Amino acid sequence: MTGTARVNNTDLLAPPVAQTIRQRSLIVGVTFAVMSIIGAIIKPDEFFPAYLLGFMAWLGVTLGCMAILMLQHMTGGAWGMVIRRLLEAGTRTLPLLVLLFIPILFGLPKLYVWARPAEIAEDKHLQEITHAYLNFSGFLVRAIIYFTTWSVLV
């Protein structure tokens, strides 16, 4: 008699109800994605701030998972083994968040004053404070650097 347990491959498969849940979740997700696109077209002034808030919330979850996982790797020990797989799964959403960042680039003029050329041209103070740091190309370069760094760390 050996001290190891025998694991059957069927024990590792998801239950049949998981397929039903997956299909219903996909339907709900596609429905709300279509509603979001309609909202972005009809009322972009309201859509983009709400989208930015939701994006930052989920980016915070992903980066929080990464930070706790890095802390566990630095300190070692068995305390993180219980949640390690959950944290790793949480960090795997970063490529999706890179794609979901694209609408924010299109909505910059709706989100920030410094992204509106007409208002910058009228306001001398805005011209002084935005030319070096707050501009579209600088924003894009910093976003690429941040997402690349996070992707390497994940």
Describe the structure.
- The chain is an all-alpha fold.
- The chain has one domain (44-153).
- It has helices at residues 17-42, 44-75, 84-91, 94-100, 102-106, 108-111, 117-122, 124-130, 136-153.
- The longest helix has 32 residues, at 44-75.
- The chain is flat.
- The mean pLDDT is 88.
Notable features of this structure?
single chain, mainly alpha
Explain briefly what this protein structure is.
By secondary structure, the chain is mainly alpha-helical.
User: Domains counted in the coordinates: how many?
Assistant: 1
pLDDT below 50 for ≥5 consecutive residues: which ranges?
Answer: none
Number of alpha- plus pi-helical segments: 9
Total strand count, please?
0
Mean pLDDT: 88
Strand content: under 5%
- The helix/strand order is HHHHHHHHH
**Rg on CA atoms, Å:** 22 Å
Helix content: over 70%
The CA-CA distance between the termini, in Å, is 42 Å
Structural class: mainly alpha
Shape: flat
| Main sheet overview | none
Helices and strands, with pairings:
Blueprint: H1 17-42, H2 44-75, H3 84-91, H4 94-100, H5 102-106, H6 108-111, H7 117-122, H8 124-130, H9 136-153
Helix pairs in contact: 1-2, 2-3
